[in-house]
Write a structure and sequence with these properties.
By secondary structure, this protein is α/β, with parallel strands linked by helices. The chain has 20 helices and 16 strands. Helix 13 packs across helix 14 (about 475-495) and helix 18 runs antiparallel to helix 19. The protein has 3 domains: about 15-130, Chitobiase, domain 2, CATH 3.30.379; about 135-470, Glycosidases (TIM Barrel, Alpha-Beta Barrel), CATH 3.20.20.80; about 490-540 and about 575-675, Alpha-glucuronidase, C-terminal domain (Alpha-d-glucuronidase, C-terminal Domain, Alpha-Beta Complex). Helix 2 links the parallel strand 1 and strand 2. The two termini are about 35 Å apart. The protein has helices at about 15-25, 35-55, 100-115, 170-180, 200-210, 225-230, 240-260, 285-295, 315-325, 385-395, 405-410, 440-450, 460-470, 475-495, 525-530, 555-560, 570-575, 590-610, 620-650, 665-675, and strands at about 30, 60, 70-75, 85-90, 95-100, 125-130, 135-140, 185, 220-225, 265, 300-305, 335-340, 365-370, 420-425, 535, 575. Bound molecules: beta-D-glucopyranuronic acid (BDP).
Length: about 675
């Protein structure tokens, strides 16, 4: 198995009794609609059942009085939201009800999931509504086929072949997304090329949209803010300039001619060198609202990113996005949503939630997670990300009192947003198995499932994915679920324990905590950990940058005191003495060493666990994962050695027993990193 089929494998269910039980209610697929999306739903059911039950189930327009089939139906009066579905089974007749065609499609995939995970269906009665409206992937893909921070090959989009040749893979991409409820995709990099707004490219994007449409997926584009200058021939891109406004209005009209259901724009502006409204003395709201006005007549939306930090690097970067956006609360147009990264810095293995979520009640805030493993070991380290996503979604902002979780902010239930969105920066690429690391497919899957319903548990999602993708054998499925669940903490332990962050530079892979030279201080590693002869950590209380003041008082209280601050966040907010005793009973130095060593050792545990499921997992997948775990083991030791040898120069203390001193010197580790960075 090369992994291409993802979680939609549909291999024959081994248990014949189970097959027979399912067969009783799956004799026909009744489709009484000409909707392309419902047609997709029926065909997906047919494909799935063909594989799972080994029989061809006919699609018919009417049951003709027969029972024992699956009926697809929409009901405008159903108590569902626009994409929700209902599954029921009465006297062996299954009904999939949606309020809309898309609801039926999601219901069809949900029914297949019941079969794939071997659930009883006799008394099936299930209602599910997505909690967030726009559930999107963000692709950081470029015109030349490269992917910014992509680790699974080249872009899926073959721009040179489009629009004439349609790679069948586009449809498979859409199927996978629809099966987990994703309904939007931004096809190009946030560091956007204006080329995507030319007629040449709009035709190509329209060809993709034509494939995705029958899977309920809308297409969006990232836009280059000065496009009116680069491709429009104007002298300015000032959002308050009438000609600029007209240029965008015309451009948007043109886009909708190509793509009638175009979703809208994603914008990275005045961020990391990208131009934006501030270049003209305007603010983010001015920029966003100008685009919003152009899109509004077509019901398009603007997703404006809050990932910004100024270039001087003197202030605490942690505070930057809040400082720029908080004063703009309530100033954005109705069809604008501000997309905020989960943490204040940048997709670190562990970050506190972004303070923006707790302080802008009048602005719809969307969530941006990163699925691609930019800071999580690329495609060789195993990190199941649902716990990262959940940790942020479940965090309490206290914006409207206790229980004001980030999830409730994002799903709109707290502030009654008219618009809600959640995005994941995709980990897909042209590798045959889509994600490089076979188990990284689980991250794409988990993102989609949580985007639909953030109350699902990491464990339930993992277990579901494992059963659909790797094995339904109970004990092996349990073992794999367990290793997925533990993988993130293991990675954090050897990589950034106790609230450390950004110990690498360059490509964001090799350990380089000593990195202290860059064009700007906040692009060095030492800026973040601040190790010195006394201790380590970034003081963000009132004694330091006071970034903590950006949170509600209740949150400040949890993190303000180093003696009570939860250990995962300790060095995010405090500069702590090496000799300080922690709640674990160990000194900070000993605790850090313990984390680095046990983290690295735990990769050995992952390997053992994986070895134990060999008999129940496809051999190609098994070997693929085993090989990557071996690499991870080597690299985890590299991380451990780099950190302890480097920090030892500040702490001047021995490595605590029972851990053995690294076999190499700091100089040797540094040489290794230097070689790694050669081109
Ligand atoms: C950083 C990435 C960079 C992205 C940037 C962003 O290193 O490639 O362009 O985020 O999100 O994590 O805009």
């Amino acid at each position: 198995d090369d992994g291409y089929r993802l979680w939609l494998k549909y291999d024959l269910i081994k248990d014949a009794t189970k097959r027979a039980a399912y067969a009783r209610s799956t004799q026909l697929i009744v489709l009484n609609s000409t909707s392309p999306i419902q047609k997709t739903a029926a065909e997906e059911l047919q494909t799935g059942l063909q594989g799972l039950l080994g029989k061809t189930v006919p699609i018919v327009a009417s049951a003709g009085g027969k029972t024992g089939g699956i009926t697809l139906t929409t009901n405008a009066a159903a108590s569902l939201n626009s994409e929700g579905y209902q599954l029921s089974n009465q006297q062996n007749t299954i009904t999939i009800t949606g309020k809309t065609d898309a609801g039926v499609l999601y219901g069809a995939f949900a029914l297949l999931r019941q079969f794939q995970t071997l659930q009883p269906i006799d008394r099936l009665s299930l209602t599910s509504n997505p909690k967030i409206q726009h559930r999107m992937l963000n692709h950081w893909d470029n015109t030349d086929g490269s992917i910014e921070r992509g680790y699974a090959g080249q872009s899926l989009w073959k721009w040179y072949e489009l629009p004439e040749r349609i790679d069948p893979r586009y449809r498979d991409y859409a199927r996978a997304n629809a099966s987990i409820g994703i309904n939007g995709t931004v096809v190009n990099n946030v560091n956007a090329s204006s080329r995507f707004l030319t007629a040449e490219y709009l035709q190509k994007v329209a060809a993709l949209a034509n494939v995705f449409r029958s899977y309920g997926i809308k297409v969006y584009l990232s836009v280059y803010f000065p496009a009116p200058k680069t491709i429009g021939g104007l002298k300015t891109a000032d959002p308050l300039d009438p000609e600029v406004n007209k240029w965008w209005a015309d451009k948007v009209n043109e886009i909708y001619k190509f793509i009638p259901d175009f979703g809208g724009f994603l914008v990275k502006a005045n961020s990391e060198g990208q131009p934006g409204p501030q270049d003209y003395g305007r603010n983010h709201a001015d920029g966003a609202n100008m685009l919003a006005k152009a899109l509004a007549p077509h019901k398009g939306i603007v997703i404006w990113r809050a990932f910004v930090y100024k270039a001087d690097g003197k202030a605490d970067r942690f505070k930057a996005a809040y400082d720029e956006f908080n004063p703009l609360d309530g100033q954005f147009a109705k069809n604008v949503i501000v997309q905020v990264k989960n943490g204040p810095i940048d997709f670190q293995p562990r970050e506190p939630f972004s303070p923006i979520f707790g302080t802008m009640p009048k602005t719809p805030l969307g969530m941006e997670f990163q699925i691609t493993q930019e800071y999580l070991g690329f495609a060789t380290h195993l990190v199941y990300e649902a716990p990262i996503f959940k940790e942020c979604l479940d965090a309490d902002t206290y914006v409207s009192g206790k229980g004001s979780t980030v999830a409730k902010v994002v799903d709109g239930s707290l502030h009654q947003y008219p618009l809600t969105a959640i995005a994941g920066v995709a980990n897909t690429g042209s590798d045959r198995n889509w994600t490089g690391h076979p188990l990284a497919q689980a991250n794409w899957y988990a993102f989609g499932r949580l985007a639909w319903d953030h109350t699902l548990s990491s464990e339930a999602i993992a277990n579901e994915w494992v059963k659909m993708t790797l094995t339904t054998e109970l004990s092996s499925a349990k073992t794999i679920t367990d290793l997925l669940l533990k993988s993130r903490e293991i990675y954090v332990n050897y990589n950034t324990p106790l609230g450390l962050s950004r110990p690498w530079t360059g490509v964001h892979f090799a350990p380089e905590p000593w990195q202290n030279r860059s064009s700007r201080p906040d692009w060095t590693a030492v800026y973040y950990h601040r190790a010195d002869s006394l201790g380590i950590g970034f003081e963000r209380t009132a004694k330091g940058s006071n970034a903590l003041a950006q949170y509600r008082p209740e949150v400040q209280q949890q993190w303000n005191n180093p003696a009570t601050c939860p250990l995962p966040y300790l060095l995010w907010f405090h500069h702590v003495l090496w000799t300080q005793k922690l709640s674990t009973g160990r000194t900070l130095w000993d605790e850090l060493c313990t984390r680095f060593y046990t983290g690295a050792d735990s990769v050995g545990w992952l390997q053992k666990q994986w070895a134990s499921v060999r008999k129940d997992v496809d051999s190609e997948t098994f070997a693929n994962v085993a090989g990557r775990l071996e690499t991870q083991q080597k690299e985890a030791i590299w991380w451990r050695d780099a950190w302890v040898l480097y920090l030892q120069e500040f702490a001047r203390q021995p490595i605590p027993a029972p851990f053995k001193k690294p076999e190499r010197s700091l100089k040797e580790v540094k040489e290794l990193v230097d070689i790694y960075q050669l081109r």
